[in-house]
Every structure is written in C-alpha cells, then in structure tokens.
Fold this sequence. Notes:
Blueprint: E1 26-30, H1 34-45, E2 49-53, E3 65-68, E4 71-74, E5 80-81, H2 86-93, H3 98-101, E6 102-105, E7 107-110, E8 119-122, H4 129-135, H5 145-164, H6 166-170, H7 174-180, H8 185-200, H9 209-216, E9 228-231, H10 235-249, E10 253-255, E11 260-266, E12 269-275, E13 280-282, E14 285-288, H11 292-303, H12 310-314, E15 317-327, E16 338-339, E17 345-350, E18 361-367, H13 370-373, H14 378-391, E19 402-413, E20 433-435, H15 448-464
Parallel strand pairs: 1-2, 1-14, 2-10, 7-16, 14-20
Antiparallel strand pairs: 3-4, 5-9, 6-9, 7-8, 11-12, 12-13, 15-18, 15-19, 16-17, 17-18
The structure holds flavin-adenine dinucleotide (FAD).
Amino acid sequence: MKHRNFHKESEENHLPQNPNVPSEELTIVVGAGLAGLSCAFELAEAGRSVLVLEAAPYVGGRTANWNENGMEVESGFHKFIGYYTLLPELLERAGIDLNEMLFWEKSMETRHPESPEPGVFGLDVIRAPLKTVLGALGNNSYLTPADKASLIPFFAAGFKDYVARPEELDEIPLKEYAERHHVTEQALERILEPLSSGIFFLPPEQYSSYAFFGLFAPGIPRLHKMRIGAFSGGMTDVMCRPLADAIERLGGTVRTSAPVKSLIVEQQTVRGVELESGERLMSANVVVAANIRRSQKLVAEHFSAVSAFRPFFDLEAMPHVTAQFELPAPLLPQDRTTFGPGTQLGSFGEQSRTTFRDKPGRTSIILVDPDALVDLPEEEVWQRTVDSLREIGLEGVDSATDYRIIRGDENFYRLSAGSEKKRPKQVTPIPGLFLAGDYTKQPFLATMEGAVISGQRAARGILKT
Ligand SMILES: Cc1cc2nc3c(=O)[nH]c(=O)nc-3n(C[C@H](O)[C@H](O)[C@H](O)COP(=O)(O)OP(=O)(O)OC[C@H]3O[C@@H](n4cnc5c(N)ncnc54)[C@H](O)[C@@H]3O)c2cc1C
C-alpha cells in the first residue's frame, strides 16, 4: 500500500493517439495532474492537437481518489481556497459547476494537547492571518494577549519582506524569522506551526519564511474572496475526470495507464516520448507535467549537462504521509478544517458529510514531519496517529473500522529555506521541451492554483511558438 502501483491493468484506458493527427502538429503532455490537464485544456481550446499520457489508471495525480485495496481513498485532505482565480475560471470553462463541486466551510478549529479549549477561528485565518489572528479575541484560553501581540511585528515585517526582498526571505527558516521578531514560544507552536507544518508538513525549523508568507499574501487584496471549500466527492470524480472529459470534447485525447519511460531526443530537440510498453509517439512538443522526481529523471537522462537545468536538478523533493480511516460514526461534530499543533497531526477533518458521504464516519489527516514517517511500517504510523488523536481528546478513533496510510516520496518540491531560486521556468532552452507542475516557478507554491498556473504558462509558451 505504501506507494501506488501505476502499472496495473487500466480501468479506464482511453483510445490511442489519433492516427489522423500528424506528429508535427501534436503536443504530448506527460502526466494528468492539474498541471498537465490545465495545459492540455488550454491547447485543445486553442484548437491544437493534444495527447495526455498518464501513468496511473486514473487522472488527477495529487488531486485524485481511487480504491486502495477495498477502501475509497484520496491523495490527501485538500481545501479549495476562495482566493484562487485561475483554477475556478478553468473549471468553469470546462463546464464544471463549482457550487456542486464544493461545500464552503464556515470556521476552522485548532486543538492543542495542553489547551483547555480548542481555538475556533473564522474562515479568514488561513489566508488573512494578520487580520484574523489579531482579531481572534475570543480565543484567550488558547492564546494569551501577549502571544497575540507578539505576532503583530512578525506579520507586518514578513509581508513587507515578501514584497521587498523575497530571495532573502526564502533563505530564512520560519522558526528563525519568528525568533528574530520575538514571537512567543506559545504563539509559534499554536499559531505559526499549524499555518506552516499543518499545510506543507515541514517543521518550522525547516519551513521557508517565503513559503509561509507567500501562501497568505495573495489573499490580502482578495479578502472578500476568503472562503475554504471542501470537495463534495473524490477529486478525480468531481474535478479531474470531468476536466479530462472536457479536453476530449475539444478533440484532445487522454490516455491512462500509459507511463512514459523516456523522451525521444534528436539533435538536442525533443521529438516525442517512449512509453514503458515500448510504444514510441512522435510530436512537435512535449510538456513534462509529471511530479518533480519523475520530471527530473526524464529531463536529466538527456540534458544532464545543460547548465540552465542545474538548479532544477538540485531542487529537492519531500515526502507526504496521510492517514485515512472509517468509523461507525463521525469522529468530529462538524466537517471543518482542524489543526493539531504539538502532535503528529498537521491538518485534518471529518469528511462523512462532505467528500465521503456514503460513510457513517470518515476522517483524513495530513501528518507532519513526513521525513520521519515515510519509511516506517504502516502499523507504526497508524499507532502514532491514534496516540495523537487521543492526546487532543478524540478517543473516538478507537472505534475505527478500517484505515489506510497513503504516502509518496517524489511528488512535492521541498518547501524548505533556499528552494525558491531552484524552481525552473515552464519554457525551457531545449526546443520542443516544456515543463509544467506545481514545482515550476509560479507564485502559488505547491497548490492546485499553482499547478494550473504552471500548465497555462507551458501552454502559452507552445502557442507562442
Ligand atoms: C496530501 C496533500 C494535501 C494537499 N492539500 C492541498 C490543499 O489543501 N490545497 C491545494 O491547493 N493543494 C493541495 N495539495 C497540493 C496539490 O495537490 C498539488 O499542488 C497539485 O495537485 C499538483 O499538481 P501537478 O499536476 O503539478 O502534479 P501531480 O498531481 O503530482 O501530477 C503529476 C502526474 O504525473 C503522473 N506521472 C508521473 N510520472 C509519469 C510518467 N513517467 N508518465 C506519465 N505520467 C506520469 C503522475 O501519476 C501524476 O498523475 C495537496 C497535496 C497533497 C498530496
């Protein structure tokens, strides 16, 4: 169960490349995550021929759901942030109704083992921390007035540095930045930790300060758009499969269970791809929209000596680990985003009223410090999850009827200090080769919005040629 096996028999294999499309007009997109799908949609909508090749038997990548040995799972707990613009706009063009795809949450919760009461915050806390954290006067047993006051100079300086000197900000780990600005220990653990590790897993000692402020900064001019949406079903079912269908309606082709083994390169120009099956497909352009590790391998096989790619090859990946389980009754009274600072629980939520409505109880958890967990036996990861839930008073976990530990180690670029300068652009110096993926350079970090921006930039690069 540890890593998904992409090479099993396809459940939904699609038609092969349309033999009527001459290869000199075709773009091949490797990977059907949101980056690959958004790129393919833009190209198909512009009247270009496009073929998407996806290794897994289903589309969606990190925004997917599937059946894992008899249990319905997802890649992990996902939230759709109201200030995203290009993702909703793309989905609307593809005919996907956001109001059917999402449930909007009204509040969020933070549970700490030593706090007598949970902190409950209005929705703005994720994307407008300055306003909301400081305005959270009702949570005094969770955070003292001194803790709150210590956050004021920290946020003020951080947003200023995010604009004025982003490269320098990216070199400073969040914990160090917080210490420099005299954030109290309790505010660091109870507020900054959930807003960092709770979202991108890494502990504050590693987490880039640029990534921290960069996640919230786009929300400041769009405060009126502050909402958090939970998916109304599995993400392949309600978002990515309908998006792939829209690409096919526009004349494109999406093939699943079609892992690409290597690029076909002639005279330093990318001319197509070879599949694991040995099939060779020629094209005018190839967009590598696989996850970071696979993309690095595909490009490095032919272009390891190209100096422009050196920072990209040095960009590190980080693992992610999630625990998902079913119960005879809901674990939590509401389906809302919950953080568990001071425990192994990053962010988590009950989903039996939103994403997995056919289950009486269903919880999904993103675990923090995945480097320490990714290679542990799953029973041990599960035990740590149970212990953490008990620590914050959620003993209901003892009645769990089934669980899965879903993890991967090659999907995310590492959001640690110093990574920003290594992220590659979508348009590469190699003729015929484009990159897409949340790890490529765009302002929305490792998010669904970021993946869409990257795909659209790659498509624009192709349309310009
Ligand atoms: C647990 C978790 C929680 C998250 N929470 C949020 C959230 O709340 N909000 C948010 O906005 N974002 C969230 N994200 C991040 C978001 O899912 C990603 O940023 C986004 O989905 C990345 O899309 P992508 O297309 O760049 O990459 P991926 O989705 O990783 O797509 C890459 C695709 O390439 C395929 N592939 C790889 N190798 C090959 C090959 N050789 N041949 C063919 N295909 C190949 C893979 O199978 C995959 O389908 C979360 C992610 C995870 C894992």
